[in-house]
Amino acid sequence: MKQVPALKIDGITIGQSLAIIEYLEETRPTPRLLPQDPKKRAHVRMISHLLASGIQPLQNLSVLKQVGQENQLTWAQQAISSGFNALEQILQSTAGKYCVGDEVSMADLCLAPQVANADRFKVDLTPYPTISRINKSLLALEAFQVSHPCRQPDTPPELRA
């Protein structure tokens, strides 16, 4: 599909974020990104898919081009707000310090870039205190600071930190 991300590793190329994360979890299980408890693991996967499949694709450049320049901001804001409304409710029963309990998981890896997109599209995060609190905790971690979308080599100058 000519999209990112793609990871070349162990003699194969893997596309799609969740497939990459799950491969890394299975082949390099430290640090653990999926909890051992099956119910918590299901929550992590549910949140990850909500973010990666339910919200994020609606802001891809190919979709925004179809929406038209004059409608892009409103479209992205509505897509993010709709998804964040659902996510905020889910997090009421799953969150600890992070999306599911007190350990960073695959769900958190999906949340941080989506909050960055929300900032990019000027979404008011006031109605999402749990999302905001978790993101603040994540951004205190070095791994999330250096991997933030605004710090990537291909980030357009106007979006850089």
TrEMBL record:
Checking SUPFAM superfamilies in the record gives:
GST C-terminal domain-like, Thioredoxin-like
Where does the record place the GST N-terminal domain? 1-32
Required co-factor? Answer: glutathione
Q: Which domain of life is it from?
A: Eukaryota
Name a biological process GO annotation: glutathione metabolic process
Listed A to Z, the keywords are: Isomerase, Phenylalanine catabolism, Tyrosine catabolism
Q: Do you know which Gene3D superfamilies this protein is assigned to?
A: 1.20.1050.10, Glutaredoxin (3.40.30.10)
Q: Where are the transmembrane segments?
A: none
E.C. numbers: 5.2.1.2
Broadest EC class assigned to this enzyme:
isomerase
Task: Provide the catalytic activity annotation.
Answer: 4-maleylacetoacetate = 4-fumarylacetoacetate
Pathway this chain belongs to: Amino-acid degradation; L-phenylalanine degradation; acetoacetate and fumarate from L-phenylalanine: step 5/6
Using the record's annotation, list all stretches that form the GST C-terminal domain: 37-157
Show the GO MF annotations: glutathione transferase activity; maleylacetoacetate isomerase activity
Is the keyword Transferase assigned to this protein? no
Q: Name one Pfam family in it.
A: GST_C_2
Kindly list the GO CC terms recorded for this protein: mitochondrion
Q: Which family does it belong to?
A: Belongs to the GST superfamily. Zeta family.
State the protein's name: maleylacetoacetate isomerase
Taxonomic source organism: Physeter macrocephalus (Sperm whale)
Q: What is the lineage of its organism?
A: Eukaryota, Metazoa, Chordata, Craniata, Vertebrata
